[in-house]
Amino acid sequence: MTVMEQRATRGAGAPTPPPAWQPRTDPAPLLPDAEPHRVLGTDAAADADPELLRRLYAEVVRGRRYNAQATALTKQGRLAVYPSTTGQEAAEVAAALALEERDWLFPSYRDTLAAVARGLDPVQALTLLRGDWHTGYDPREHRIAPLSTPLATQLPHAVGLAHAARLKGDDVVALAMVGDGGTSEGDFHEAMNFAAVWQAPVVFLVQNNGFAISVPLAKQTAAPSLAHKAVGYGMPGRLVDGNDAVAMHEVLTEAVTRARGGGGPTLIEAITYRMDAHTNADDATRYRSDAEVETWRAHDPILLLERELTERGLIDEAGMQAVRDDAERMAAALREAMNQDPVLDPMDLFTDVYAEETSQLREQAAQLRAELEAEAEASEGSQEGGGE
Amino acid sequence: MTTVAAKPAAKPATMAQALGRALRDAMADDPTVHVMGEDVGTLGGVFRITDGLAKEFGEDRCTDTPLAEAGILGTAVGMAMYGLRPVVEMQFDAFAYPAFEQLISHVARMRNRTRGAMPLPITVRVPYGGGIGGVEHHSDSSEAYYMATPGLTVVTPATVADAYGLLRRSIASDDPVVFLEPKRLYWAKDSWNPEAPTDVDPIGTAVVRRPGTSATLITYGPSVPVCLEAAEAARSEGWDLEVVDLRSLVPFDDATVAASVRRTGRAVVVHESGGFGGPGGEIAARVTERCFHHLEAPVLRVAGFDIPYPPPMLERHHLPGVDRVLDAVARLQWDQ
């Protein structure tokens, strides 16, 4: 018996409490399932579209190769830092494929793969991590927001953009990506709340990869699951196997379709695992065991797809090799592009701070210009001196 | 006898009315202008600045948001990304702090982060400063925080006409503007014609409010009337004080300020904000760098004390008043 019902029985003849005491919506339909949604390795896999399976496989294999290449580039000093999504490729790729061209993606700093899978040039996606500028692309051209380094701060942006699109009558959906650690941030809460109140066409994708750098989920939240957090805001929460590319694609597509149709926001928690350290600068052995990593290796997104494709005879060894070759070509092109030194103009530091340079910035720009000229003269001088 | 349609004449109007009118006119002129914040819709804002906007333009254009400042500014960022021109109201100076991360990490630098591809034309209106008997967290002078953030424009009007003109220019700006409204001047009246508001100088232009020859009082926002009163009082001491109203702290009008100080040879910076790490230190340094050989005395500062904003029953001891300004003027080494 609920508290309200108890009151009603006990207080026969007592005045009825005001209607505002009643819960406004039934929470039951908003609750996530107890188990993450899975398709691969279940009976439902038989219904998966062969074309979709092959497409997801190709993209996930490319994604794995992209992660390996970007990590290698950090070791060669070509990238300042790379937060890898090795092991999380299914979620990254599915996020990109669930969107129409007119939709917007709001990635975190870890989600360059989702941007690349959306069609962004990897060199442009990696500009931030190479360090030659902050954002390497025009967000409006690609409908990909700048990679957000401050955690969860991109989520309210997605809500605002989706809200603005809806006000304008455009059927545009925003998909915002965040990690498990990011769900502890205040901006996560505020974005979820605004999205639900405004019924904004936005989908929140939380990749729960087990760790916020070193801190495990148990130290992050006491919620039954991250997907359960949705219920408190009045939106549905979905729990999905983040390594199951087909399940990810299904759940994301459903949520995007629902948002596009005016059904409001959805929170999706994808259970996955970061196979690499937080970044190349991190040492994961300090906070997790190799045995744990091994259990996830058996649940690798590529393995799950390969098993399904081969069991159903949808791909043979030659087909898989063709996919790997394609990924290798992508990696070679990325390697070659990143081995070129970026062209830097220090004077760019002063453009685009304001629409019009302030007099103070003009003075500072003149100072830098003079320093650069002096530097150039000095280096010419030393070259001449060296010749004597 | 011929009758001529009576031209609406200038009559006493408050700064609050002028600000409301500026919002209304901006919304009427540009359908992408959206007003959002806490209580701005049905109530018309706690200071009634947005009164009538929801009724005239609908709740989609003047929106009561959930009570969450980071969410308000964060969603405004997304709206601006999609081509809208949000005008955000922060209810009080100290209530704007939860939005700091959005302001500093995104709003201020989005133009720069995207090499100019995606500037954010957002105006953040912040009622600021003391002198209204507000309890804790309702009277902060938070301008130094904003001034220290590259990419933000920081504007603060001191007159009814400037309140209208500067707010229109702030909303029209393609850069984010923190528009600081001196709340104790909300109800200050001035002769002003809402039907024929005059334009003001571009943002970044200071103005000489009162010409003078003895010394320059450099000030802005709520301290402008204090300085004008001090300048009147100083006449009996034989000082003819010039008062420069900065109007915008960023961009800073070095030219107008330096020209004035070169003429007078003496300067006092006056503001409510604390002195240590406050705007006055930056301004005094800039003046000294540019006018050293014209100065007869060190540039002095009259500021709020370096204390948390005091309770209302003690705030008069904190706020720089006429006497404190005149004391500083008296210390400008007149006997040399």
Summarize, please.
Chain A is of the alpha/beta class. Chain A is built from 15 helices and seven strands. Chain A folds into two domains: 28-41 and 48-280 and 289-338, Thiamin diphosphate (ThDP)-binding fold, Pyr/PP domains (Rossmann fold, 3-Layer(aba) Sandwich), CATH 3.40.50; 346-387.
Mean pLDDT of chain B: 96
In terms of quaternary structure, the protein is heterodimer
Mean pLDDT of chain A: 94
Strand content of chain A: 5-15%
* Domain unit count of chain B: 2
**Series of secondary-structure elements of chain A, N-terminal to C-terminal:** HHHEHHHHHEHEEEHEHEHHHH
Number of helices of chain A: 15
Plain-language structure description:
- The complex is a heterodimer of chains A (about 400) and B (about 325).
- Chain A has about 400 residues and is an alpha/beta fold.
- Chain A folds into two domains: about 30-40 and about 50-280 and about 290-340, Thiamin diphosphate (ThDP)-binding fold, Pyr/PP domains (Rossmann fold), CATH 3.40.50.970; about 345-385.
- Chain A is built from 15 helices and seven strands.
- Chain A has helices spanning about 5-10, 50-75, 90-95, 110-115, 120-125, 125-130, 140, 155-170, 185-200, 230-235, 245-260, 290-295, 300-310, 315-340, 360-385, and strands at about 105, 175-180, 200-210, 210, 215, 235-240, 265-270.
- In chain A, the strands form two sheets. A five-stranded parallel sheet of chain A has the order 1-2-3-7-6, sandwiched between helices. A two-stranded antiparallel sheet of chain A has the order 4-5.
- In chain A, a hairpin with a 2-residue loop joins strand 4 (about 210) and strand 5.
- Chain A starts with a helix and ends with a helix.
- Chain B has two domains: about 15-190, Thiamin diphosphate (ThDP)-binding fold, Pyr/PP domains (Rossmann fold, 3-Layer(aba) Sandwich); about 205-330, Rossmann fold.
- A seven-stranded mixed sheet of chain B has the order 3-2-4-5-7-6-12, sandwiched between helices. Chain B has a five-stranded mixed sheet with strand order 9-11-10-13-14, with helices on both faces. A two-stranded antiparallel ribbon of chain B has the order 1-8.
- In chain B, helix 8 crosses helix 12 (about 320-330).
- The longest helix of chain B has 15 residues, at about 15-30.
- The radius of gyration of chain B is 20 Å and the shape is globular.
